[in-house]
Amino acid sequence: MKNVLELAWLIPLFPLVGFLVNGLCRNQLSKSLTGIIGSGVILASFVMSVLIFMQVKQGNTQVVSLFDFIHVGKLSIPFAFQIDQLSSLFLLIITGVGFLIHVYSAAYMHEEEAPHFARYFAYLNLFVFSMLLLVMGANYVIMFIGWEGVGLCSYLLIGYWFKNIEYGNAAKKAFIMNRIGDLGFLIAIFWIILKLGTVSYSTPEQTGVFDLFNRLSATDITGITLLLFLGATGKSAQIPLYTWLPDAMAGPTPVSALIHAATMVTAGIYMIARSNILYTMAPVTQTVVAVIGLATALFAATIALKQNDIKKVLAYSTVSQLGYMFLGLGVGAYTGAVFHVMTHAFFKALLFLGAGSVIHAMHHEQDIRNMGGLKKHLPITHITFLLGCIAIAGIPPFSGFFSKDEILAAAYAKNPVYWILGVAGAAMTAFYMFRLYASTFLGQFRGTAEQKHHLHESPSAMTIPLIVLAILSVVGGWIGIPEVLMTNAHALEHFLAPVFEKSAALAATHHLDHSTEYLLMGISVAVAAIAIFIATSRFSKKPDLQEATGFGKVLANKWYVDELYNAIIVKPLFVFGKFLNSIIEKRVIDGIVNLTGRLVHYTSRQVRLVQSGQVGSYVLLMVLSILVFFAVQFFVKSK
Amino acid sequence: MIPVLLIVVPLLSGLLGFFIKQEKGARAWALLSAVATLVISLLGLTVFNKGNHLAYDATWLPALNSSFAVSLDGISQVLCLLTAVSFPIIFIATWHSNYKNAHNFFAFMLLSQAGLMGVFVAADALLFYFFWELALIPAYFLCSQWGGERRIAVTFKFFIYTFIGSLFMLIAIIYIYFHTPDQSFSIKSFYNANIPQSAQDLLFWCFFIAFAVKMPLFPFHTWQPDTYEQAPTATTMVLSGVMVKMGVFGVIHWLVPVLPTATWARGDVAAILCVIGMLYASFLAWQQDDLKRLIAYSSIAHIGLMGLAIFVPTSLGIQGVVIQMFNHGINIIGLWIVVELIERQFHTRKISELGGLAQKAPALAILLVIVALANVALPLTNAFIGEFLMFTGVFTSNTSRFNFIFTAVGGISIILSAVYTLNMIQRVLFGNTNTLTATGRDIRFNEKLVLAVLVVVIVVMGVYPKPMLDMTQGAVDTIFSKMFIKHP
């Protein structure tokens, strides 16, 4: 049944059709029909993805070529999809989690008017479509199409409520920050073309970039990987380009779930995992990736400690968790990073949708200082959210534990300092997540009487996705149980092995002995448990109500990075533009032009060639007569 | 016969147009002629796409050994198609605009189209020069008679600029004529001219100035924002959508293959100007409050990239330029249409006075967003193909020492284009309505239709550029190989 793979193009086609139908018929379709079309197309893609995954699991992989996208001279860039272990896994995550978010959205967005509701679903479908192109593309250019596509969709969805200028600014910021990274990606593509003449990935049938890497010098490979990584810092919100992601929560909450879990931010991880061989060959870049990842993980975690907006805490936690994934990539734990993408997709989608359910119940309240005691009013939301918190905190046997542990173990093998800092970050993660949990669900309700009166559990279209995601957050890690706990149980590693084969062969793998591994695991779990205990006991009774002061204020204000960027980059550039506009353009360049004009005018007056002194009309006359002369010549042919 | 028809149809209908005094009739006549021209162009691409249909040669000035020689290669096909597609779109989109002495207005528009076609098909240097002027003179009249308040001063500036540029070109053409093996103006003789090394540089700069003014390249650009702002929008569409391509086309067709040695030697200097222009114009676009000026500067930035890809010559890059000439024309006409629709409704083009249009005119908003995305060269829009090829060409060039710097610095304009375009989108479409825009309404059917057609072209060309790439490949290769014949 290998021909199922031939139909892989259906996977992105369904959401594209959904986008077109919902987008073009937005004034005709009813809301329920829109919701059914919007979610249905993703479900169809999910079913296809499952079928394809079954094939890939049996070892069938394939490149599906559709048509020549760009074919000029020797440069050939086909519009082709690569179906292999890595892409098929991402397909499951994107369409699976994506589908749940679509279903949830249909209930969450019910207050919107029908045309806007349809617009919302059209954007959502387009988002999934772009992400699918990104992971399915069989070469870097197709990946880049999806790459910029998700940037566009995040722009459209963050600014979905377009009457609000603030939201618009957040959307613009997301797009521009992403574009900075995109330029890096683009130059990396040019570099690859320059050196290798192709942008296609390697497959068993076809020689591609990953077979030819030994044609690249050390400079080339470092340059290319660093530029690709610059692209990844934009899309996956790493230092220095992370500031758009926390602002991106201006969009509707399910969109945050989509951006943070199923699409968009995982793109950078996918790109590096896809290019793993290049990174393995570039130790300098690997160190950069690991250090930036770790720094981002810690930096974002400190900010999350002091945020009071339920979505902002989650947003910084995403930035921080992505940092862990990059740490994993940097130390060569490619499987671990992909594993964490997957578990993170489950629990982060769960947490965002849970937060959405809370916000829904609280009538658009997002400040946790005005919540508290929601446990008894929102039982399903509460229990699922708690499971998500435990999963992200890294408590076994929840999913987050296994993936984070794999990354930390690999980090330890590379450099114990990575591990120490990583565990410190994990402690902060556990702390801020349970600060969030306790402030929201435990203690006394602190909202208005009006809000209290309306508190209600969300409809089943919202709670069912929560339950599904909660189950996945609990059991999702079991496909990657480390060797030390159970022999031959790391199904994911076996599955992905062909993708990382070459890297594994080239990189010396340090195996920790079992006692060390137990010790590391024990410490990280203990630290997380302590952090949970402190946070819960401290914030369940008496939440963090007062304004932060001192260092806390610095954290609450996100280390003033936005202000810094504004002061040293945005403002100076704008002022520079102003200078160019008012001085250089108007005075200098146009000044010279006008001077020349006046000079011509002056000379003409002196010479008095024409009574009026209008050199313009004179010259025009001259040109006209030349033209007439030419024209006449054509008809009056000389013998 | 196809190239002759492409010139003669608009020329004759333009001349006749002066006598159709009735406004509606003049309008319809112009549209009819434009559609006929489009049909001829399409026939030339399909049914009559064979050697003898695509070339024509007749005696013209035998004493000077100059003939009325016209021919269509892949590159000129694309530009003729662009010219042929643009005019009907322009006429339909501005159907509701009023002009005094409408018959003269439309007649000049058609004459200008004839001149443009001539420039793109001319296979004789003198003929090329003749059409070059023929295209410009109607433009002067259109600007000075139907323009905005400052039209006289601005047209004068436009005229001085382009006239001085043309003069340099004429000098260069005459000089080369004396160095052709057979004392002829034909393009073949020009390609084979034996030009002394010492003169190559000077000639290069003569041509360069003529074409750089027309494109325009920094620092020869200051006529452009003024002219675009003051000219009637229909004329601005012609100027920016099609007429600036005369300059780009001139460089590709007449400068690079005629003076390859100088292009290799002086290309970097020209390329530096292009890169400066890309950033400079992007920064200026960011500062503009007038929609027309914003688009004008944005266009200068985009044209700068075309210049860069030509002066760091690679076959990929030139291929990208050719594709981009077409796509840039489509996109910028789309932008002008939107500006025209906004201005006609609200009587302002000031971004600061607009806002919230998405609420009042959703169709306009959607179409503007798509055209704007094409303007920032988002993948799967037409402009991405061209920009990708041009940048790839520049980066992979093995003749320039600065290819990495050119790409990296020029690439910043990709980021800046997102900055100013999204800024504009946000301030015009999003946010709340103000007292002016609160009364806004959505666009009419014919306007929607025209913009929708452009959007379809944008997407089709962005997803499946193969036909146009295939069509132009041969001509690009020929031009590029010329660069090596005399200079292996």
Question: What are the SSEs and their pairings?
Answer:
The complex is a heterodimer of chains A (639) and B (488).
Chain A: H1 3-6, H2 10-24, H3 31-57, E1 62-72, E2 75-83, H4 85-108, H5 114-136, H6 140-158, H7 165-196, H8 218-235, H9 244-247, H10 253-262, H11 267-274, H12 276-280, H13 283-304, H14 310-330, H15 334-361, H16 379-393, H17 399-414, H18 416-441, H19 449-454, H20 460-475, H21 491-506, H22 514-541, H23 550-556, H24 561-607, H25 615-635
Chain B: H1 2-17, H2 23-45, E1 55-61, E2 66-71, H3 74-93, H4 102-121, H5 125-146, H6 151-178, H7 187-191, H8 197-214, H9 223-230, H10 233-255, H11 260-287, H12 291-311, H13 315-346, H14 357-360, H15 362-375, H16 382-396, H17 403-429, H18 445-463, H19 466-485
Antiparallel strand pairs in B: 1-2
Helix pairs in contact in B: 1-2, 1-4, 2-3, 2-4, 3-4, 3-10, 3-13, 3-19, 4-5, 4-10, 5-6, 5-10, 6-8, 6-9, 8-10, 8-11, 9-10, 9-12, 10-12, 10-13, 11-12, 11-17, 12-13, 12-16, 12-17, 13-15, 13-16, 13-18, 13-19, 15-17, 15-18, 16-17, 16-18
Q: What structural category characterises the helix and strand content of chain B?
A: mainly alpha
Which percent bin holds the helix content of chain A? over 70%
Instruction: Catalogue the unreliable spans of chain A.
Output: 609-613
Q: What is the general shape of chain A?
A: globular
Low-confidence stretches of chain B: none
| Major beta sheet, strand line-up of chain A | 1-2
- Classify the oligomer: heterodimer
Spatial extent as radius of gyration of chain A: 29 Å
For the biggest sheet of chain B, the summary is: 2 strands, antiparallel
H/E element order of chain A: HHHEEHHHHHHHHHHHHHHHHHHHHHH
